[in-house]
Amino acid sequence: MAKKVVATLQTKTVRLTKAVKMVRSPKTGAYTFVEAVMDPELVNDWFKK
Questions:
Q1: Is the pTM of this model over 0.85?
Q2: What is the distance between the alpha carbons of residues 26 and 42, in angstroms, rounded to a whole number?
Q3: What average pLDDT does the segment 3-13 reach?
Q4: Cys-Cys with 3: which of 16, 21, 43, 44 at CB 3.0–4.6 Å?
Q5: Which residues have a Cβ under 8 Å from the Cβ of 40 and sit 6 or more positions away?
Q6: What is the per-residue pLDDT for 15?
Q7: What is the 3-state secondary structure (H, E, C) of the chain?
């Protein structure tokens, strides 16, 4: 499974990170990309899911 932090976005006082991970479908075996924008402290927990 591939994972990567793509960008760190900063707007005013809120700091956000966009993370992308590649997930394999158990039904077809094809890979899809899942993106999320979140707080930087939550990135590692999101990748572990």
A1: no
A2: 25
A3: 65
A4: 21
A5: 8, 15, 16, 17
A6: 81
A7: CCEEEEEEEEECCEEEEEEEEEEECCCCCCEEEEEEEECHHHHHHHHHC
Residue pair 19/4 in contact (Cβ under 8 Å)? The answer is yes
**Residue 46, pLDDT above cutoff 70:** yes
| The total number of residues written for the chain in this structure | 49
Pull the structure tokens for residue 26: 């158990």
- C-beta atoms surrounding 23 within 10 Å: 14
Other beta carbons less than 10 A from residue 47's beta carbon: 13
- The predicted structure's pLDDT at residue 31: 94
- CA–CA separation, 49 vs 44, rounded Å? 9
Which two tokens mark 7? Answer: 């960008």
